[in-house]
Design brief:
Length: 591
């Protein structure tokens, strides 16, 4: 019989061979001996600092794991921001008295202690704490998720919530994963990524990749060389299926969460790999609730995890009761009951089918977005008197459209610069607080929002503002899956929509992205980096090296020089550079 993984509470006192591989890196690997040494040394430093609440944000999953367990073994609590946007970090500063970061510039003026790149500061043999058992009932992490009332929601997790879920995952899925390494193209800053790509592999003694792989070709190349597990999302799997990146890969398992997988992608991935995607349904508050596999797609019911009780609330929403639930009503025995925002039909056998959301939380790409939260942020802008957001469909993708009633200041700005420029202003104002992929792609400026006789704002009435006038037409921009900024550099991970407007007439038998689109996307990224519209004097050294085709994944980078007078940009992917150039900015008249 397969042994259950060790508990997370007792993980660091576990006797394992010092040379056992914990994490795979581009340069090699980190071993169990290195991991325990790093945790002990950092925990000693954190304990000496006298801080209790540490905000953690790293791109590297090994660094994140060391920081997470070092905080716990120092007696502290880890605070996990949902993204690395400057505005998001700024809003959470007061919740923390210390910061563990891969990029110190995120909190350049923070009052608390800042430790950047902690592994580089830990000398070999540094004296640390003794790594004994952790208290399973102690507060372990605080996560933040979109709230339906317009404000972000803090969700606290005790160590046992995550510990018991890891045990459940191993009992349910671990049978065929002996010797497999875990790879991921989702972040560990959210509960799904933290559990599946990090905590479960750690507890079960399986290696995990420290890097979050941006494109299908990268992750598949690493996975093909060994028994592997892929932890992914619907957006990533769709891009990999469309580009045939998965063809010939035979992983032990593929997991997906964040939104239901569309039928075509579910079938395509199963056909390419011989493995049906295991979809995971849950939330930050509930932990894992249910799972399903659909090798041919279709409306297959979800099956609850062991010891998860399901019911239907009076309004048709799914009510979940289990020991994994960390929010909601106390049901005794360490169990809590939480009513989710999803309407469901629950069958007599305990399975269920989703029937849409009851609140205004939507999934854009693989990101969870509270429309009221973004509306509230828009309302703070001096150009906005009132705003309403609605999701619209573009092919298989959902995107956000914004209807705005301008304030007096906004009307003046609208008359001065026009609709497109005001839309850019508002997008730039939202960018510090929300994942780029969730930002509105279509803007409408109206005299009044379409309220009914009762003063309510029906979603269908708002959606009607975007019908027939291009709101639901082909997109002009790529799907931005991730965005990071550090200093004078901004990077985006993107996918070319298959229905991109620029493909019309370019060309009939082999559509490729024209150069003007490359430049448009570089300018948009430059405006986000600099926080203002670009005044362009010239474009230099423009080179288009290889074609960019429908469904292609690529990265876009813009870098400003020290004087912020020029922007160097490049688009590239695994095979090399796609296009490069420099944007020269106009100097002010009095400069």
């Amino acid at each position: 019989m397969r042994q259950a993984p060790v508990t997370l509470a007792g993980l660091l006192r576990e006797t394992r061979p010092p040379g056992q591989i914990v994490a795979l890196t581009a340069a090699g690997s980190h071993t169990w001996g290195a991991f325990t040494g790093h945790v002990a040394a950092l925990a000693g430093r954190l304990r000496a600092a006298g801080r209790q609440r540490w905000l953690i944000f790293f791109d590297d999953s090994y660094d994140f794991a060391v920081a997470l367990f070092a905080v716990a073994h120092s007696g502290g609590v880890a605070i996990l921001p949902p993204n690395g946007q400057f505005g998001t970090i700024a809003r959470l500063r007061d919740a923390a008295d210390g910061f563990l970061l891969g990029d110190a510039s995120l909190v350049a003026d923070a009052a608390g202690e800042v430790i950047a790149d902690p592994l580089a500061l830990l000398a070999p043999g540094a004296r640390g704490v003794e790594l004994g058992d952790l208290d399973a009932e102690a507060p372990f992490v605080e996560l933040f998720t979109s709230g339906s009332s317009g404000a972000g929601k803090r969700v606290a997790k005790r160590l046992r919530h995550l510990d018991e879920e890891v045990q459940t995952l191993e009992r349910t899925f671990g049978g065929g994963l002996a010797g497999a390494s875990f790879f991921a193209n989702v972040t560990h800053q959210h509960i799904y990524g933290a559990l599946f790509r990090l905590l479960w592999p750690l507890a079960s003694g399986r290696p995990f990749a420290a890097r979050t792989y941006l494109h299908g070709g990268e992750v598949v190349g690493r996975m093909a060389a060994q028994p592997s597990v892929l932890v992914s999302s619907p957006v990533q799997l769709r891009a990999m299926a469309e580009s045939n990146a998965l063809r010939g890969l035979s992983p032990r398992a593929i997991f997906s969460s964040g939104a239901p997988l569309d039928d075509a992608t579910a079938a395509a991935v199963a056909s390419a790999t011989g493995v049906a995607v295991t979809e995971i349904f849950g939330s930050t508050e509930t932990g894992g609730v249910a799972w399903r596999q659909r090798p041919q797609g279709g409306d297959v019911a979800w099956r609850a995890f062991p010891d998860v009780e399901l019911a239907t609330a009076d309004d048709g929403r799914l009510a979940v009761c289990s020991r994994l639930v960390s929010d909601g009503d106390d049901a005794g025995g360490g169990r809590h009951r939480f009513v989710m925002g999803d309407r469901v039909d629950v069958g007599l056998d305990g399975t269920f089918r989703l029937r849409g959301r009851a609140d205004r939380i939507v999934k854009i790409g693989a990101k969870r977005l509270s429309l009221p939260e973004m509306e509230a942020e828009l309302a703070r802008h001096p150009a906005v008197a009132e705003a309403a957001l609605v999701p619209i469909r573009r092919g298989l993708e959902s995107r956000v459209a914004a209807a705005v009633v301008p304030s007096e200041h906004g009307r003046a700005r609208l008359d001065d610069v026009g609709r497109a420029e005001l839309g850019r202003d508002l997008t730039a104002a939202l960018a510090p607080y929300f994942d780029r992929v969730t930002l509105p792609r279509v803007w409408r400026f109206v005299d009044a929002l379409p309220r009914n006789a009762q003063g309510k704002l029906p979603e269908e009435s708002v959606a009607a503002l975007f019908a027939g006038d291009g709101g639901d037409g082909p997109p002009l921009d790529p799907v931005v899956e991730e965005e990071t900024a550090a200093g004078n550099v901004l990077r985006r991970r993107c996918v070319v929509p298959r229905d991109l407007a620029y493909f019309a007439g370019h060309f009939e038998f082999r559509p490729i992205v024209p150069g003007v689109a490359h430049l448009r996307w570089a300018v948009d990224a430059g405006e986000t980096l600099l926080g203002e519209p670009l005044r362009i004097a010239a474009v230099e050294a423009l080179k288009f090296k290889v074609p960019l085709e429908p469904g292609a994944a690529f990265e876009l980078e813009v870098e400003a020089d020290a004087d912020r007078r020029r922007l160097r940009f490049r688009l590239w992917r695994d095979e090399g550079e796609i296009s490069t150039g420099r944007i020269v900015l106009a100097r002010e008249i009095d400069d």
